[in-house]
Design a protein that fits this description.
The chain is α/β, with parallel strands linked by helices. The chain is built from 16 helices and 24 strands. The chain is globular.
Length: 578
């Protein structure tokens, strides 16, 4: 009753605040007053649908049902259920949605697993369809948190009954059971699912719409197992038409988002559109950020007079993020990036801590050996669930900065406050993009376009820029250091100089490859002398070299550390007045 009263309050007051239902107006998504709405969203991947790569189990357990099986074999069914209860309870809370709002997001895409809402067909009796309250209650809570933050919630059926694609990591497809496309019962359950959603949320203004099937990837007539060479896609079109018909009998208010085959991008046979409040979704990963890369969907928007939406993207470097979102917004295309939380990563807005104990479990699952005790495994997994709480994750400010501020400007911003005199860690260089906050040889990955997979951060530590960062073993450190430094690369730091004068700078470094060399450039004009960095006894043997006679003026300045000769690892710079 409480939620019903709350939803009614929001509905009544939506008129006052000028919101109301999102809908399409030709090629735009607009609010109730006809104002263009550019969706800037984040997908809550890994919460309701676990994917192996997010938990670092992909090499031995990709789909959720395999992950759950591995856990059950270790700790038993009862303890496994307790783990999943904690995992779901902690994975997304109001704190998470409040944080997304504070960072600049105005929408959330919820990847749903059908089995939180309704049992699999194998557990139903006499062909009936029954319902589970768990998923609906989670969705109600999420929608309430979104409404409180004036954010739109877009529902995404990520794992459909039976699984909608051969890529089982995404859809939790189990090849030993009939897929969505091989079972009429699964199709009817999916249609009934969306009818249930429409009935429940038809009057809610902060419901941003229904993304009715995520990334279908199935071959109906073609040879490619993921449907990339399909010419007609007739079963996919028919199912989406049937779902739309079922929704529209109940809900005429909300947008319906559709996705093509081949992970959402093969629209052969899908057109023409069959509803006048529909958005064409596409997904974009690992390719060039050029107009040519999205020309096909731009043509769809023009030809079918319907909005287009980048429903999923991410998993690359900050430079790629900035370039992709700049491209989208220049064409008035809304977006939802992916995902919010993963274990021990640099490319998301947050990172979940990987404990040494969890590493032990991963090693056992991967390589075998002595089986961990139930007590050890249970404690480890419950700690993992605890680490998913928003208060326990590591927020990645550089990623958020790349997605919002850097889309608007090339200006750099201090990653941390630096004062001179004082110590500045090399990894705390400014936030900004390539050739503005830093210059690095490898800073982006276009492997789909080039056919080659690269690494924009060879150490995959701390930050998601092109700068190569690894763990540091020096006696004094912030945990990390810049390494694989190449000739001609550089880092920029915004610093506050407390007093004008002449300073000396200690350079803390290690080296195996020979003599390094660097100099400073202050505010893009004044250049210091160079300091030579003789080779040390190895990458874990550190020395200090000193550059003297640096004239600095009081105030805020930009100091560029230019690497004339690379081949060394840089821990920190320490400025002292002479």
């Amino acid at each position: 009753m409480k939620k019903s009263i709350y939803f009614l309050f929001i509905l009544i007051n939506s008129t006052v605040f000028g919101q109301g239902f999102l809908h399409t107006d030709g090629q735009k998504i607009v609010d109730a007053q006809g104002n263009n709405v550019l969706l800037r969203g984040l997908g809550l991947g890994g919460w309701m649908v676990q994917e192996g790569y997010m938990l670092q189990t992909a090499s031995f357990a990709g789909p959720q049902h395999v992950i759950k099986q591995k856990i059950t074999e270790l700790i038993g069914e009862e303890n496994t259920e307790a783990f999943y209860e904690a995992y779901l309870a902690n994975g997304i809370t109001k704190w998470d949605i409040d944080s997304l709002k504070a960072w600049g997001f105005n929408s959330v895409r919820l990847p749903m697993h059908y089995n939180l809402y309704t049992p699999p067909i194998e557990e139903e009796k006499n062909g009936e369809i029954t319902w589970l309250e768990k998923g609906f209650a989670m969705t109600d809570d999420l929608l309430e948190w979104c409404a409180e933050n004036e954010m739109y919630l877009i529902l995404d059926l990520h794992a459909a009954p039976g699984g909608q694609g051969h890529d089982a990591n995404i859809s939790d497809y189990d090849a030993t059971k009939p897929s969505l496309w091989e079972s009429e019962a699964n199709k009817q359950k999916m249609i009934a699912f969306w009818e249930k959603m429409a009935e429940r949320y038809k009057d809610h203004p902060w419901m941003g719409g229904y993304d009715i099937v995520n990334e279908p990837n199935w071959n109906f007539e073609g040879e490619n197992p993921n449907g990339c060479d399909e010419k007609n896609n007739a079963p996919l079109r028919q199912l989406m038409v049937d779902i739309t018909t079922a929704i529209r009998k109940i809900d005429t208010n909300h947008i319906i988002y559709i996705e093509g085959n081949c992970w959402g991008n093969n629209y052969n046979g899908i057109f023409p559109l069959w509803d006048d409040n529909m958005v064409i979704s596409f997904h974009k990963y690992w390719n060039f950020n050029t107009t040519e890369s999205i020309q096909q969907v731009l043509d769809y928007r023009e030809k079918y007079n319907a909005p287009i939406w980048l429903g999923e993207s991410g998993e690359n470097s900050n430079v790629w993020f900035k370039d992709a979102l700049t491209l989208m917004e220049s064409h008035n295309i809304g977006w939802a990036f992916w995902p919010m939380k993963k274990v021990d990563n640099i490319a998301g807005v947050t990172s979940v801590t990987k404990t040494p104990e969890y590493e032990t479990l991963l090693d056992y699952w991967q390589n075998g050996g002595e089986k961990p005790t139930i007590a050890f495994a249970q404690k480890t997994l419950m700690q993992l669930a605890e680490n998913y709480k928003m208060e326990n994750v590591t927020v990645k400010p550089d990623v958020v900065d790349a997605m919002f501020r850097q889309v608007q400007t090339f200006e750099t911003k201090a990653y941390k406050r630096h004062s001179i005199p004082g110590l500045i860690y090399a990894t705390d260089y400014d936030m900004g993009t390539q050739n503005y906050a830093y210059s690095d040889v490898d800073y982006i990955n276009y492997r789909v376009s080039t056919g080659e997979q690269g690494a924009w951060n060879k150490g995959r530590k701390m930050r998601n820029d092109g700068v190569d960062i690894q763990s540091c073993s020096d006696s004094k450190n912030n945990g990390y250091e810049v390494f694989d430094i190449q000739d001609g690369e550089w880092l920029l730091f915004t610093v506050s100089i407390e007093k004008s004068g002449t300073y000396a700078m200690d350079v803390r470094y290690s080296s195996m490859e020979g003599t390094g060399k660097l100099h400073l450039k202050i505010d893009g004009s004044t250049t210091s002398k160079s300091v030579v960095l003789p080779a040390t006894e190895g990458a874990t043997s550190y020395k200090t070299a000193t550059l003297s006679g640096i004239d600095l003026k009081e105030g805020t300045h930009k100091i560029k550390v230019a690497f004339e000769k690379g081949g060394f690892n840089l821990n920190y710079l320490e400025f002292k007045m002479q």
